[in-house]
Each structure stands twice: as structure tokens, then as C-alpha cells.
């Protein structure tokens, strides 16, 4: 597993990214309208956002789910994971996502 946080922290505060073999897992997605920043930070790690295999949403606040809908458009086969008792899905729907 390769932790890619140092590259992401340069551009964004909340998201964490992990490369495991050929998988790219993003934990939280930052604020809305940071998609391009996040995409560029991911590319600096040698991956592309289109290769995301999973997005884990740890919390339902907008600073955790803000770019999730945009990232799902870039990587439509990525699994999105959130606690079923949270309202992340509702907030994503309001943001134009699922």
C-alpha cells in the first residue's frame, strides 16, 4: 500500500489517497469546486482520477463529500462507500450526484 497523502495535502486539507496494487482509494473528497485541484494532486502521484476504484466517505459534511459527484462522473465504476446510517447519500443527491 502506498499512502499518497503528502501530494494531496499540498492542494487540499481533508482527502486522503491510497494506492494499493493497481487500486486507487480516496477517503473523503474535499469541498465542492475543488475537483480540478484534487484531480491534479492525484495525477502528481502517478495515478489518474479516472482510475479511482473506491471513494470512502467518512462523514456527511460538505467538506467530506463535496467533489464526490464530480469524481463519480470521471470514474463511474468506482465504488462509493458510506455508513448507511449517515446521510451522505442524501447530501450527494443534493449536490447533483447519486
What percent of residues are in strands? Answer: 15-25%
Q: What percent of the residues sit in helical stretches (DSSP H or I)? A: 25-40%
Number of domains: 1
Quick one: CATH superfamily?
Ribonuclease Z/Hydroxyacylglutathione hydrolase-like
Using the CA coordinates, give the radius of gyration. Answer: 12 Å
Low-confidence stretches: none
Average predicted local confidence, pLDDT: 78
For this structure, the quaternary state is single chain
Q: Identify the CATH class.
A: Alpha Beta
User: Roughly how many Å apart are the termini?
Assistant: 29 Å
Question: Under CATH, the topology is which?
Answer: Metallo-beta-lactamase, Chain A
Shape type: globular
Instruction: Please trace the helix and strand order, writing H or E for each element.
Output: EHEEHEHHEH
**CATH second-level architecture:** 4-Layer Sandwich
Descriptive terms for the model:
98 residues; alpha/beta; Metallo-beta-lactamase, Chain A; 22% strand; globular
Helix and strand layout, with pairings?
Blueprint (H helix, E strand, L loop, with lengths): L1 E2 L1 H5 L6 E5 L2 E5 L7 H10 L7 E6 L4 H4 L2 H7 L4 E4 L5 H7 L4
Parallel strand pairs: 3-4, 4-5
Antiparallel strand pairs: 1-2, 2-3
What does the model show?
It is built from five helices and five strands. It has helices at residues 5-9, 35-44, 62-65, 68-74, 88-94; strands at residues 2-3, 16-20, 23-27, 52-57, 79-82. A five-stranded mixed beta sheet has the order 1-2-3-4-5. α2 links the parallel β3 and β4 (52-57). The relative contact order is 0.19.
Amino acid at each position: 500500500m502506498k499512502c499518497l497523502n503528502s501530494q494531496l495535502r499540498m492542494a487540499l486539507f481533508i482527502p486522503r489517497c491510497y494506492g494499493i496494487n493497481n487500486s486507487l482509494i480516496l477517503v473523503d473528497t474535499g469541498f465542492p469546486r475543488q475537483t480540478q485541484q484534487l484531480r491534479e494532486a492525484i495525477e502528481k502521484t502517478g495515478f489518474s482520477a479516472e482510475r479511482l476504484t473506491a471513494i470512502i466517505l467518512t462523514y456527511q459534511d460538505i467538506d467530506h463529500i463535496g467533489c464526490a459527484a464530480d469524481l463519480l462522473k470521471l470514474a463511474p465504476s468506482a465504488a462509493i462507500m458510506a455508513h448507511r446510517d449517515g446521510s451522505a447519500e442524501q447530501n450527494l443527491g443534493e449536490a447533483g450526484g447519486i
